[in-house]
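**User:**
Make up any protein.

**Assistant:**
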Amino acid sequence: MPVKEEIRRNAIERVRAGEPLFPAVLGYEETVLPQLENALLAGHDVIFLGERGQAKTRMIRGLTELLDEWMPVVQGSEINDDPNDPVSAQAKALVAEMGDDTPLDWVHRDERYGEKLATPDTSIADLIGEVDPIKVAEGRYLSDELTLHYGLVPRTNRGIFAINELPDLAERIQVGLLNVLEERDVQVRGYKIRLPLDVLLFASANPEDYTNRGRMITPLKDRFGAQIRTHYPLDTEIEVAIAEQEVRAFDGDLPIAVPPFMNEIVAELSQLARQSPHINQRSGVSVRLTVSNVETLVANAVRRSLKLGESEVAPRISDLDALVSSTSGKVEIESLEEGRDGEIVEHLLRSAVLSVFKERVSAELGRQVVDAFEEELVVSAGEDLSVDDYAQVVNDIPALGAAVAALVGDDGSGAVRASAVEFVLEGLHLSKRLNKDAVGGRAAYRSRA
C-alpha cells in the first residue's frame, strides 16, 4: 500500500472514532487540524506556513503515529524496498535470485521519518544522493548503480520526509525536489536510473522568510497540494494549557504550587506582547516565551523560598521582576530610545497583572479591601517577607482575607495565600485604588486618601 493510502486509512479510523490526530497540539481544533485532515484524506503534500513556535515541526513528527507500526522491507535495503515491488538495483537482484525466500527486515514507523533543516549549504547530494568514491575504489564501475550513496529523500522511501525552513534552501536545490513531488522519482548525475519513490513530503516556512529573506520557486510551490497557515494561541486559556503541558517539572524536594492567576499573568503577557507596537510582530512572539517565563517564575520563587527557609513554594507578584530578562531575550523590542527594553517589558507585565486582576477579583471584594485601608494603615510586601508575615496581614484585614479566599479557597496552602495577598494588593494599586511605594524588592501599600 502506498504511504499516502496507508496514512489516509489510519486517519479515517482516527476521525471515525472521534480521536484527535495530535493530542499534544492544543488550540488548532477548529482552524489548522481540519485543513490538515483534508490534506491527508486527499493525499496531498503539505507546506506549513507560520511564525516560530507554532508547533509546525511537532505536527509533522506526530504524523508517524498514522503509519502502521511495522513495515516489511527487503533485508539490507538502503531505501526501504518493498519486497513485492523493489526499486533499487540491489533489492531487485536479491528478489530475482531468491524469490519467495528473500529475507526480510521489519522497520518500525519511527524509522520511516526523515527530516532536514534547510540551510544555504544544503546540497543535492544531501537530499538525493551522490557517487560514493569508496564504492568506486572497491572496484565497481562508475556506470554501476551500486556505486550510489543515497540521500535523505530516497532513504525515507515509503515514509514521511520533512524539510524545515524551506525558503532557506538554495533555489537550484529546490529544483531538485520538483521530480520528487510530481513525478515521484529521483535522478543522480548522469545515471540512467529512475527510482519511483513513495514519499509523503512536508515542509515548513516562516511567512517573513517566505516573502523577503528566502524564496520558494513557483514550480515547487505549485507542486504542494496544500498550504496551511498556523497561528499562535487565540486566547489566554489555551496559552496556559500549552504552558502547563510543556513546562519542565522542577526536580527538587520542595512542593511547588503555581496559583492559576500567576499562570494567567504569564500567558497574558505573551498575548499582550503580540499586540504591542513596541514588539516586532514580524519575528513573532513564540509560545516558548510563555513556557520560559513560567519556568523562570518558578525558579525565582524557589530561590526566594530557599533563602527564607520555607518548606513550600508559590510564585508571587514580587517574582515577576525576574521575567524581564527571560522576556527580553525572546522578543525583538523596537524602541526609538536606547535602553527602554526593560521599561517596555515592565509595562507589559503591569498590564497583564491588571487584566487578570479585573477578570479574577470582583469589584465588590476590591472595594471592601480598599475601605479597610484606614489613613494610617500600611501593608508591606516583598520577596523578603515570609508566609507567616502575609498570614498576619490577612488576620489583621478580614476584607483582604475574603478576597484571598475567593481566589484560592479556604484550603490553599500558606504560600499560595501569600501569593494571593500580593496579587490583590498589586491589582488594587494598578487600578489606582491604592498607593504604592516601592524601594528595591520591598513595597508598601497605603490608602490613596
Summary: The chain has 20 helices and 14 strands. The chain has two domains: 3-229, 236-447. Residues 287-308 form the longest helix (22 residues). The chain has a mean pLDDT of 87.
